[in-house]
Amino acid sequence: MKTPIKKFTQILFILSIPTASLLAASSNDDVLKRLENLENEIASLKSKNIQLQEKLNKNTSESMEEELGTLEDRLDEVETMVLTDKIDFGLGFRNRVENYEQKLSDGTKISDKYNFSSKLWLNMNADITENMSFHGRATMYKYWSDSDVAFENSNSILASMGGQTQQAPSKYDYKQGRMPGDTALYIDRAYIDWTVYDGEIPVILTIGRQPATDGPSYEFKENTVRKATYSALFLDAPQDGIVMTAKLDKLLGESLDSFRFGYGKAFQAHDASYVGSEFSTISGDALQDTHMMGLFLEGKIPSVPNSFWMLSYIGGGDMPANPTASVGNENIGDMAVYGVSLQFSNLLSSGVDLFAHYGISNLTPNGKTIDMGFGPMGLMTNEIGDTDDKNGYAYWVGGRYNPYFLPDLKIGYEYNHGSKNWFSFLFGSNDIVNKLATRGDAHEIYVVYDINRYAYIQAGALMVDYDYTGSGVHVGAPMSVSNSPRAIDTLANYYLQFSLLY
């Protein structure tokens, strides 16, 4: 028999089952909700974690890129510093407009106006060791909107200087970069100065493409410092060779500063090419090397600061009739040029610069001639078998004045005269008229205004009066302009230019 307490306990147990079920069901729903909320929170945290990771990656990437960019800039700066520490670079830039007027011997007048040109110089200098240095210069020279080589067209106003047609210079090594052409850079000097002995009489070897262009006294008109070793009246052309300089000033004083001996080649005969792995060459019995030799003495005028004198001799053996011809060329003789130069800069602190150059040319034909469409022509002769010497002379004088009350202004004048048989090594003159080759008279006046220490403006006029044909040409006999039909009688060039030298 069950007691009341047992019955009551049983009743409570029975009643608790559905309640527990209800409670269990309620608890499961709550757990599920909590699990769902937890999953949502986890998903949200995952999303935030992904966003945070992306942000961190982005910031890290940008930071790394910024650091890498800064590092690259620093490396570039270091590389540039290393390069510029080894090589010093300089530049020159010139824009020029020229207006030519020409009168022929038959009275015909021709003009060619508004010829614009640009010229660029890139200078390079490097100290290799204490006794060795490198010097170079690359040049671009062209007419605006034109890539034709000057004088290529024989109908050009300047194609015939004094009645004889100049050959196209595009094939001439010494014309490249010296006459208007295309936008290519040409090397007009690249040489090593090597002090092989540094004793009481130092000995220096200059090896390579020599500083033989734009020499004294062009620096006055060009408003710059002396840029070459040799007088521009005797030699103005890129010249490959080797020069030995003995510095005598320690022994003899500045009045006799140096002695130079040089060897080079004006032309070198070869016609060779590579085809695949094969080398072929044409035997050039008719092709002749033109060997050049020079002797120079230079010193300063005693008790006159900023002055120098120079004695020069340049000889050329085996002059070619047509150096661009691979066949049919001839050695037509030998020639030599010798003379004296004097120059004074800011004479006695007066602001006056003065110079004078005098030269004699001696050409010895060997009797050989070639026919280039004008009949037989030899070295300064038209006669087959002619071996008589052809002697000429020229002088070039001028000055420049820089008024003390107008320190930015310079006024200059130059005059040169050449005789009938005058000819020198002016193959690569930077002057398109090549006035120093004139067989006749040339006058030039100019004004220079300095904009700042690097830039200047220049205006000038050049007047040339030819007496004989063939100025600047060594092939064929000069003829009187008055007796030559359609030879150039007079030529005028009016120019304006802006220059930058840095």
Describe the protein in words.
The chain has two domains: 20-86; 90-501, Porin. Helix content is 18%, strand content 42%. It contains three helices and 22 strands. The chain has helices spanning 4-86, 218-221, 249-252; strands at residues 88-104, 109-129, 132-143, 160-161, 164-165, 186-197, 203-209, 240-247, 258-267, 272-275, 278-281, 290-299, 307-317, 333-344, 352-365, 370-371, 376-377, 390-401, 409-418, 440-450, 455-466, 488-501. The strands form four sheets. Strands 1-2-3-6-7-8-9-12-13-14-15-18-19-20-21-22 form a 16-stranded antiparallel beta barrel. Strands 4-5 form a two-stranded antiparallel ribbon. A two-stranded antiparallel sheet has the order 10-11.
Topology:
Elements: H1 4-86, E1 88-104, E2 109-129, E3 132-143, E4 160-161, E5 164-165, E6 186-197, E7 203-209, H2 218-221, E8 240-247, H3 249-252, E9 258-267, E10 272-275, E11 278-281, E12 290-299, E13 307-317, E14 333-344, E15 352-365, E16 370-371, E17 376-377, E18 390-401, E19 409-418, E20 440-450, E21 455-466, E22 488-501
Antiparallel strand pairs: 1-2, 1-22, 2-3, 3-6, 4-5, 6-7, 7-8, 8-9, 9-12, 10-11, 12-13, 13-14, 14-15, 15-18, 16-17, 18-19, 19-20, 20-21, 21-22
What fraction of residues sit in β-strands? 35-45%
Order of helices and strands: HEEEEEEEHEHEEEEEEEEEEEEEE
Principal-axis shape: elongated
Biggest sheet, strands in spatial order?
1-2-3-6-7-8-9-12-13-14-15-18-19-20-21-22
Name the CATH homologous superfamily of the largest domain. Answer: Porin
Oligomeric description of these chains = single chain
Helix/sheet category? alpha+beta
N/C terminus separation: 129 Å
Low-confidence stretches: 18-26, 150-170, 281-286
The domain count comes to 2
The third-level CATH topology of the largest domain is Porin
What's the helix count? 3
